Amino acid sequence: MPSVVYTEPTHSGPAYNDMKLLYLTKNLLPTLLLSVFCNSINASEFLIEDLNRDKNKQQTWVVLPYVFSSDSMGFTMGAVGIFAGYIQPQMSIVATTFIGEELEVKHNDLRESETERTSGAMLAINGYRPSFSNRLFVSAIGAYGYYPNQRLYIEGGNDSEKDLENNDYNATTPLQTQGYNNWFKGDVRFVLPWGESKNQVLPKIQLQRGIAVNRDHIGGGAPFSTGQTLIGSEIFYSKWTADKFLESQEINTNGVRLFLEHDNTDYPSNPSRGYAFSAKASADFGTGNSTQSWNSLEVDYSHYLEFENVSWSRQSVVALNVWSAYSPSWKDSETLYDNGSLKKHQTPMWEGARLGGWTRMRAYDNNRFNDKAALYGAIEYRIIPRINPLADLAWNPIPVDWFQFVLFAEAGRVAEKYDVGLLLSDMKYDVGFSIRALAAKVPVRFEMAFGEEGSAMWFMLKQPF
Predict the structure, then answer these.
(1) Which of 128, 335, 426, 447 could disulfide-link 340, Cβ–Cβ 3.0 to 4.6 Å?
(2) What is the mean pLDDT of the chain?
(3) What is the number of domains present in the chain?
């Protein structure tokens, strides 16, 4: 039996860089909305003015119920609320709660099987500006969840084989166990007095049916002298337990992340031109209840190209993304425990160089591949048609400004060292399509992705990049 293992605590990236709404697939744990706002913070802070609404009624909100059934969680139901523009005009708040039917869970000893149910809740507050500073913004997110059948890829290197039929409790591709995923993140972001925010901290973006109409001169230009630049720091904490074992195993991590973000696009929530990039350095110093110390580096670059519309389209965009990560601390030659279940100073599965899930390599399970280094690239073709059957319907409680149809392809690989030649060889690939909508000023996306290990469906908030 492994002494300790890692799991996905349903988040990744800087605060609100990821909070997954639902992962609708039979073979992967759907962790609901717990990562949607992990990707909700763009590399910018801005104000939205909807020209289709009264200037004094710019706040929007929506409450969406959801239900689904899966092997991992059984029949599950919940609701998510999204509130934009309340308290302060640039703020957004997301909250969700969910509960599932009772499922049988097994232990790695002689105890009889029991029944447990999925349950959890999350709250995220994004973009609060303290009264003492015009350029400082604070965000926080916390989640609590219990899952009867998590699937965890402990040995998730590029060559690991997925085996869902293995009944061995010690199997690690994946390890299947019930347990808790509890975590918290909080960050402070400072908008630098450069470029677009030199004189006006929060640029105002005017939307006409969900498309920016006052930004023809924005999107591209020289880095830092145009666009918006932020620096910030984040604290994070995560705790995972494996309740299947005789003595409950757990992994804890806490630490600090520093980041630089630059956005040079016309509309960060749904860019049509320009570019954005970020750099992040993360570290767990091994203090408190941390399992062990580790560190990692990440860089991310996205580019957007707008094409001329055809007679039936409002917007046509090709979006490109490149992302890479590396963990200097990871020591392949040393193990933390005698049974070799963890390497010395390796990142948790949900940090560092990892691929698979709702943002990168969407046809694969969450954090399906993880190692010391990673390289990833994606291309999407996004088109917004003129037809919107939900526009101007008085009975519709959800303001839907547009629908978007998307085709995408992805490639990526993890490796035991950072070698570009190695990372570009034997890459994993997937392709897919997506139907997206701008609801309450938040992009909502349904996606279907296909890879060599099967297919996956997602229902998410926010563009992947």
Answers:
(1) 335
(2) 82
(3) 1
